[in-house]
Structure prediction request, 409 residues.
Amino acid sequence: MRGTAQVPASKSESNRALIIRALAGAGELHNLSDANDTQLMQRLLLDPTAAEFNAEDAGTVMRFLTAYLVMTGRQTELTGTARMQERPIRVLVDALRELGARIEYQGQEGYPPLQLLGRTPAPATEESADFTELKVRGDISSQYISALLMVGPTLPHGLRIWLTGKVGSRPYIRMTLALMQHFGAVCRDLGEVLEVRPQAYTPTDYTVEGDWSAASYWYAVVALAPDGSHLTLPTLRRYSWQGDQAIVGIMAHLGVHTEFLADEQVRLSKTAVGSGFSQDFTDCPDLAQTVAVVAAALGVPVLMTGLESLRIKETDRIAALQTELAKFGGFLTDEGDERFRVSSTGFRVNGQSVATYHDHRMAMAFAPLALLGPLTIEDPKVVRKSYPQFWRELEKAGFNTDPAPAPVF
Ligand SMILES: O=C(O)C1=C[C@@H](OP(=O)(O)O)[C@@H](O)[C@H](O)C1
Ligand SMILES: C=C(OP(=O)(O)O)C(=O)O
Prediction:
């Protein structure tokens, strides 16, 4: 294994930059992601008169657009796939209602689809109030908090959010604040409290970094490749806003060494694996599948915590991992108290077929196992959500895929 693999641009950064640019009115965005989640966000933001918006299976699109559309006074319906209609949104809807938004549930209370009916300005806050205040729980999805923060500068008194509960995916909140600041917003992260001053965004240019969550699949490839393998990934920064850069430290336990080169490149090389470790995924839930598969394949025991949010993503990722790993001799055992242990006995790849449950990360997390033997990935098009060129890049790296990857768009 030698060479260079292209990762897509970060869909998380792209989708924030698109919302903030829409609020700023202008600004050039470079290296936007070709992920369906980002292409979709771009198309929907360009459609000012649509009577219905479909966020498909994109959590950021659903949550960010709910706040953006309703707070900019749009009256429209916002829906998504069958799975999106099972992903909760009540925390965000309740918070927006407190800000004067009129939102109705079209189906089940607490879930999309939503009817957005515009906004009646909230009762005049006292003159002395320096911020409009909200209490928001942080233990279901950080996307609600990012969605609220991004519209914060447009509110007459700005916004002060008190976070309650165990806050998950916090690096994504920091990324939101960092991008807002890049576009001239004045905000402060005080831990439990987040503050945004009322102030127009400044039109600014931004170049999106490569996607560290997508990079994790190349870490998996190097971890499972023969000794002496190495791989270069362009567009990844040493100082990243993405919490999934945590893959650098995690994969050091699984035999991948990272070197940051000049010109925003990282070089991965294969080294010795460690004897086992514990890892909390609260800050980086999207890495859990990659790590579980590699650890099981290498026979490195891992105690995984912080997986709570995995149950409400594209699929129940804990159940999906348990079912699919078992086909190979891998286990993700629930030890109670939200602790899960990865283990394996006689892990073998010999033609199994992996179900992907409409989840791009199931497909990409299991694909690197092809280094150990042949396997089938069902419904390979799922990768279009975040990494449409994934199969093509694997072919370029020397994997044989049948059928050969076709353009996914
Ligand atoms: O804000 C974002 O861009 C994201 C936040 C995370 O979701 P949660 O906050 O729901 O954990 C992550 O899993 C998702 O892929 C992208
Ligand atoms: C959970 C994910 O995305 P979202 O929540 O934005 O649909 C993901 O990309 O793994």
